[in-house]
Every structure is written in C-alpha cells, then in structure tokens.
Specification:
With about 550 residues, the protein is of the alpha+beta class. The chain is about 60% helix and about 15% strand.
Length: about 550
C-alpha cells in the first residue's frame, strides 16, 4: 500500500517539473499565463490525493480532500477558458461571459465545501481514506463533463475553420489531450467509485490522465507559442506603421485598423466602412466615379487612385485596395491602405519649377532646347500610350472620349464603344509564364489594330481588357467590325517556346445612334456607357466566351 500512496505524489512531481520547464524554456505570453494557471490547478489534485493518505487526523484529511475537489471543480472551466486562448478566440472572453462560465463550477465547489448533511461525501468509520459520495458529488462530476463536452465542441469547431496545417496539428494535439483526460476521468469514476465494491482501487488514475493530457497541452502550447510571439511582432509592426491600413470583411465591416489610418478616416473595429461616403467630398475629381464603381461592383480587382483631401489642408493621398481571397478564390475581405504622398508631390512640383527655371535660362542654347523638345515629345508619347502594347492608355482614352462625345452630341454623329478582354488569360499566365502572357497581349493588340480605321482609337483599359472607340459607326457596322476582329484574333497563334498559344476574346459592344444622343454631364454619361458595355462583356463571358454581345 505504501507504493500506491506515493503514486499521486510521483505524478504531482512530474506535473511540477512540466510546470517549471514551461517557465524556463518559453517566453511567457498571454496564452502561456493562462496555461500556467490551468496547470497549477491540475497539480492540486494529485497533491491533495497524496496528502490525505499521509495523515490520520480527520481535520487534515478533510482539508486535503477538499483541496483535491476544489481543483477538480476548477478543472472544467479552466480547461474551457484555456481552449479559448489556444484557438485564438480570447477576445470573446469578456468579464461577464467569464463569470458566467465559472458560475456552475463555483456553485458545485461551494456545495462540496459546505457538504450539508453529507450530501457531497461522508467518511467511512470516521476516516476520509474511504468515502461515500452523495448527489452533490455526482452533480460536480456531471458539470465537469459538461465543461469538457463544451470544450470539445469548441475545439472541433476551431479545427474546421483554421486553414494552417501547423495550427491544425497543434489543435489536434490538444484535442488528443482532452480525450485522454476525459477518458481517464471516466475510468476513475467507474472503477474507483461506481465499482469500488467489486474491483480493487486503482490509485492515481485521474492524476495519470492529467499528466498525459498535460504533456499534449505542453506540446501544443510550445508550438502555438511561436505564433503568439509572431502575432505580437506583427501587431507591433501593424500599429506603428505610418501607412494607414484598414482591413474589412466581404461586407465592409472593419476587422482591423491601425493608428496610421486615423489622419485619413475615422473608423473603429466593428463599424461599416462606407467607401462612397468617404469619397463623397471628392466627387469633383476626375477618376473618383470610376474608382468607386470598380470598388462597389468589382471587389476582386486591385485598385489604386491618388486624390487630394480638402478637409486636411489639401494633402495628397494614394489609396490602394487589395482583395483577400482563400484557396477557393472566395472573397474574404479587402485591405485598404492610405499613403500620404504630399511631400512627394511637393518634391515633384519643386523639381518641375527648377526644371522650368533652368529651361528659361538656357533658351538661347538652341541645341539644348531642341533636345529638351524631343525629350518632352517622348514623355508625352509615353504619357498617352501603354508601354507593353503600344496602344493608347486609359487616361488618354477618357480625355479623348469626353471631348468626342460632346462633338457627337452637337453634330448628331453615331459612335460605338467596344470592350473586350482575352479569354482565360490568367490560365495562359499560369501555364506559360508572364513573358508569354505579355506576348499574347502585344500580338492581340497588333491583330486588332490591323482591322481598325485611322480614326478609331484602341486603348488598353487595364490588365487584359481593351477598349475601342469607333466614331461615325452605326450598330450594324460596329457589330460587323467586332465579328471581324474576333475572327482575326481567333485565327492568330502566339509562339510559346515549343508550343503555340491559341487566343480568343469576348466582346461587349455599345452603339449610340445620333437620334438618341443626349446628356448633361459627359463624365456621368461616359460612366453609364462603360457600365453598359461592361455588362455586355460579362454577358459574353457568361454565355461561353469567344463571342460578341451587343448592349441593349
């Protein structure tokens, strides 16, 4: 019997050694602190079970046995709270919610310590080495298993939601520990309580389960602790960046916002970030309409725009939008960044001023003047064309169209807008590489250019999407020309090393007749024109691609 008496003490020593090793070999983070408190509670059970066997005084026996059952009562809620930290949901543990979790266990512990009329336990022959348990004991056991079941459900839910392989392994290890402790707890109740009259007592059964499960927890928290440290470092960097950052979910609810965003926008976690409301004072600036339209209707696109904030002393700000998607390309949210480029703007303005002054001082040098003229011509050409395809760029297109549509309305001239993009272009990039993708863009633009008139304008609208402006063109002519372009592109093959890439395009065409041409605001009108052409393009994609769809 003496050897059996020392079983619980040996298990207590092992648990204490684990306790010391966690402190000695790990940086103490918030998760570690919760674990250490939980670990300390777990050590009290074997210590109390050992101490009660080492004394013959009833009062001391009662004190030690009560210590064990207090530890047992705290085991369930401690386990549940630790699971919240381990699964990264500690933010849900508000004070009121934590008290609610502790209430059932606290009531059971009070019942155990009070032990009215022996309803929790009674000594046999005045000695607590052998005990008879009452209904309050079984209530305590039932409540503990309820805690364990709740913690298990929480772990299963966390396993379904995490995508990181390392985190899944860590949670799986902790889950094994929970099953071990639950199993040993059931065995202890079954063998040492329910069947104690027919089976020999097995000392240290629950303490063994605590030790084995604790080993699993130590492994899990050791790995998870690295992520705690990384998350603290990431949080530090995130908070102290001068770049403003707002992270929103797919419904524009703010998930994270750093200090750097406060000079540009006042948003707090949990609020809805309304981009249209934020851009409302900036509607007079050129590309705001298009930017807002893209933000609201094309959430998967990366976007960037530079504007001036009038209420902040005219500071220049660059805003960038980047989508966040999972492995299945499902939109999870977006990252919105704000860069203050006021100083850069001032440097550019100052540099331009100095260049102009230098130009004025050297007007007499004809050779230098001619060279500067040629350089300026080249810069102007670069400013209106796309460097990869040689087409006009989007800025030039929009400037020209605002002028053209005014003339078309005044003289009742029909025109057409064609939007097209290359089908499955991302797959071409992924399969053959970006160099081949660039060659596909160049070759497609060259083929399209051969089918156009001198007065037509071909522009790269963005990515693999192009725009064609067709002046003096009715609906039948626009549809016929679009069909010719689509066939010509479809007959083209692009070299990709040892293979040739076949390319097709989807086209959306909007035709405006001279009779219906009327508007007040050219910018608003162009937005509606491109919206209609864009809808026709997306219809062409949805109907199978490699086709022309006329906008209604």
């Amino acid at each position: 019997m003496l050897g059996f008496q020392w079983t619980d003490f040996t298990l207590f020593v092992l648990l204490f050694m684990l306790f010391v090793s966690v402190i000695a070999f790990n940086r103490i983070t918030q998760t570690h602190k919760v674990y250490l408190a939980f670990h300390f509670v777990m050590m009290l059970w074997p210590l109390g079970q050992f101490a009660v066997k080492m004394t013959d005084y009833t009062q001391f026996q009662l004190f030690f046995i009560n210590t064990s059952f207090v530890a047992m009562g705290l085991l369930g809620p401690g386990w549940l709270i630790f699971v919240f930290f381990l699964t990264g949901r500690a933010a849900q543990l508000k004070a009121s919610r934590t008290l609610l979790y502790l209430l059932p266990a606290a009531l059971c512990i009070i019942g155990a310590l009070w032990n009215p009329n022996g309803l929790f336990m009674s000594p046999v022959a005045g000695n607590y080495l052998e005990r008879v348990y009452g209904p309050l004991f079984w209530l305590l056991v039932l409540v503990q298993f309820a805690y364990f079941f709740t913690a298990l459900m929480s772990m299963f839910h966390a396993l379904k939601t995490v995508s990181s392989v390392n985190q899944r392994k860590q949670l799986g290890t902790a889950l094994i520990g929970m099953f071990v402790l639950t199993g040993f707890g059931l065995l202890d109740v079954l063998i040492n309580v329910l069947l104690s009259q027919w089976l020999p007592i097995v000392p240290g059964l629950l303490a063994s389960g605590i030790l084995l499960s604790d080993l699993c927890f130590v492994i899990a928290i050791y790995r998870f602790g690295m992520f705690d440290i990384l998350s603290m470092a990431q949080r530090d960097i995130f908070e102290h960046m001068t770049t403003g950052i707002i992270v929103v979910d797919e419904n524009d609810k703010v998930l994270e916002v750093n200090r750097g965003a406060s000079p540009f926008v006042q948003s707090a976690k949990g609020e809805i970030f309304e981009m249209d409301r934020f851009l409302a004072p900036l509607q007079a600036q050129g590309e705001v309409y298009e930017f807002l339209y893209r933000y609201l209707h094309h959430p998967y696109e990366k976007m960037q725009m530079e504007f001036s904030l009038p209420e902040n002393g005219g500071r220049h700000v660059s805003i960038q939008i980047s989508p966040v998607v999972d492995d299945r390309k499902t939109l999870l949210g977006r990252i919105i960044t704000f860069h203050d480029v006021t100083e850069l703007r001032k440097l550019v303005v100052e540099m331009n001023r100095k260049n102009e002054a230098l130009h004025e001082r050297n007007l007499e040098l004809i050779t230098i003047q001619e060279e500067l003229f040629r350089v300026n011509q080249k810069l102007e050409q670069m400013a209106v064309t796309d460097g990869l395809t040689g087409c006009f760029n989007r800025r030039y297109l929009m400037q020209q169209l605002e002028h053209e549509v005014l003339l078309n309305m005044r003289y009742q001239i029909p025109f057409a807008i064609v939007l097209f993009d290359i089908d499955h272009f991302k797959q071409i990039n992924d399969k053959y590489g970006h160099l081949v993708g660039d060659e596909v863009l160049r070759s497609t633009a060259d083929i399209v250019r051969t089918k156009l008139r001198r007065t037509d304008i071909l522009a790269r609208y963005g990515g693999e999407e192009f725009t064609i402006y067709l002046p003096h063109t009715n609906r039948e002519q626009a549809e016929l020309l679009a069909e010719r372009i689509m066939i010509a592109v479809g007959d083209n093959w692009v070299d990709a090393g040892t293979e040739k890439v076949h390319v097709t395009i989807s086209m959306g065409v909007l035709s405006e007749t001279s009779e219906d041409l009327s508007f007040d605001d050219p910018k608003e009108y162009m937005r509606e024109v491109f919206s209609s052409a864009d809808s026709a393009l997306y219809k062409a994609k949805n109907e199978g691609r490699n086709r022309v769809v006329m906008a209604l």
